Amino acid sequence: MSLFILEIGTEELPARFQKGLEKELITRLSSFLKESNVEFDKVESHVTPRRAAVMVYDIAEVQKESEEVIPGPPVRIAYDADGNPTKAAAGFAKTQGVELADAFRLETDKGEYLAVRKKMGGAKTVDLLAAFCPELIAHLPFAKKMKWGDQEFTFARPVRWVLAMLNDVVVPFEVAELNSGNETYGHRVHAAGPFAIENAADYYATIEEKCAVVLSAEKRRAKIIEEGNALAEKAGGRIIWKDSLLDEVQGLVEHPIACLGDFDASFLELPRQALLTSMQSHQKSFGVEDAEGNLLPHFLTVLNTTPNEMEVVKVGWERVLRARLEDGRFFWNTDLKVDVDTWLEKLDSVIFLAPLGSMGNKTRRISGLCADLAAKVAPEIQADAERAGRICKADLVSEMVGEFDSLQGIMGGIYAARKGETDVVAQAIAEQYLPAGPDSPVPSTMGGALVSMADKADTLAGCFGLGMIPTGAADPYALRRCCLGIARIIIEKHLRISAAELFASAQSRYEGIAWKLDEQEALTKLNEFFAQRLKNYFTSKGYETLLVEAVLGADSDDVWAADARLKALSTYSKGDGFDQAVLTFKRAANIIRKQGSEAGVELSGAYDTTLFENDAEKAFAKALEDVAPKFAQLWAEEDFDALFALLAELRPAVDAFFDNVMVMCDDQKVRANRLNLLSALVQQLGRLADFSALQM
């Protein structure tokens, strides 16, 4: 067994490309080797700013051999009446590259066929890799590719060298007008190279020791954390690590060296978020805080070299950051001098979506919607919610957000507090964009929840009215995320509101818009879209699709109740008797559907006891009547687990009814009465789940 190394040397690769590139190299090379019957132990990949390397451990030097029986034409066609081979036999042998004498007769269920045995595989791995590697490199996917020189070849960045070795042998091929070889290059400053690799087994040692490069992203990350923590501890603080920035920074360096810089303590008057954003966004640096979480006048940056004079480099970084912080202080002081009404006037000149008017228009709609929502779920904060909705976008025209757009909402909350708004208003504005994704938290306050839902519902209603409905992967206005955010807020904040009413109310607040879709059609499509997103949300949580469909088939409008019913149904589905219960109640639901709505017959669920002809009908009706008050009480208490448990009380009577009663009898009155008896059952249970959607 052997070791194969492929290294693609490039100009600096963007950090955002690196993790995906590692996965692609592993996946594509593994798949090729498996399809080629080349045995190996594992495939590993490491990407730095200047190289993408992939290693295959314990790879077989020869492709695995196998024998395959290949059938040809039937014997009756392959030979004539005298037993002489026909053109069909000769052509088959020629096609398979064998002598006709090597063919044999194969007995099958369909008759006797001419066949040959062919040995497959046995090729040298080095030859297979030489043919595959150029294709691998050429077809690696990137968000953006580029050309260089006069070549037609494209890659994320210009390719400068290619190393390809199987043990001590170069795997020969040409790609991007470069020949593969056994040379690699080191760090641009500390060890430029080139360095010859005599054997693939020497690659790691050469990279780490001679090239002055830390190959592994995990090791670069760990080194940054270790050195950063040590420097911060000496300064009496701790680093404010941000995972996304840490991933980016380790992807910017091959030779990470931590450096702790300082800035003037007077800048600490700026809000924490503004200071950290200045450091993180522009300087790719980390903040430092004390044990109580207060910012300290230090920052951590990561160098790509070991400088001869660290103090000189440190001063340079401090000078650059100071300029950024001076900008931030100017923006902060300028914004504090402006009153909120001035910002609101400016919002009328900021376009939301051209056909839907300005941001000023949007905030007026959000404000009204917040007031309506608060009246239903939190009347004590109605005035604050209305105010928060009106000024929630004011910071979009502030100087600070103009420079750091990632601070929108956050700075709005800070400015609101500084300009005399209530805590409820300030916190609601700060949380208006939550949740920002499937793993992001929902707003912690009710005010934030109301503003967030109103904002999202307004966007959804406007876009659907204009026919801007997401298709495929295209979703430029993040409407799927809007639906998910509304659903999560309703569920996690235990809100009992109608999603359909929310969207209708949002739509009604638009005035003078030239809609592309009829208003009712747009609402119908929006409600269907929301129900589909709700289904996807539940299935992503691990619930079985059929259970989700059954619950949403009963009602998807009361989102919190749908979530609670789904949890109860999921628990009930794991208990004894679930399958039989489903069969029983599904049968009832199917009969009502076929004989009722599909047949054009209106079934009210009202039945006449005088038309009962046997004891099974009477027992069924009595069981329904006995359960009804329990069902009503448990429904009012929202005890869905207990409601599903009631099915055990109903099922024996329903089973006996089906065993002893002919529903579709000849007497029209009796038939209708029996259908209404079943309809009464389905109407009651249909509030819990659509049993016809379940399959056993």
TrEMBL record:
E.C. no: 6.1.1.14
Compartment(s): Cytoplasm
Catalysed reactions listed for this entry: tRNA(Gly) + glycine + ATP = glycyl-tRNA(Gly) + AMP + diphosphate
Coiled-coil ranges from the UniProt annotation: none
Domain DALR anticodon binding: 584-685
Keywords: Aminoacyl-tRNA synthetase, ATP-binding, Cytoplasm, Ligase, Nucleotide-binding, Protein biosynthesis
Catalytic EC class: ligase
InterPro entries with a match to the protein in the record: DALR_anticod-bd, Gly-tRNA-synth_bsu, Gly-tRNA-synth_heterodimer
Record keyword ATP-binding present: yes
A GO molecular function held by the record: glycine-tRNA ligase activity
Main location: cytoplasm
Classification via Pfam families: DALR_1 (PF05746), tRNA_synt_2f (PF02092)
The protein's assembly and partners: Tetramer of two alpha and two beta subunits.
Family: Belongs to the class-II aminoacyl-tRNA synthetase family.
The protein's name in its UniProt record: Glycine--tRNA ligase beta subunit
Organism (species): Halodesulfovibrio aestuarii
This protein's encoding gene: glyS
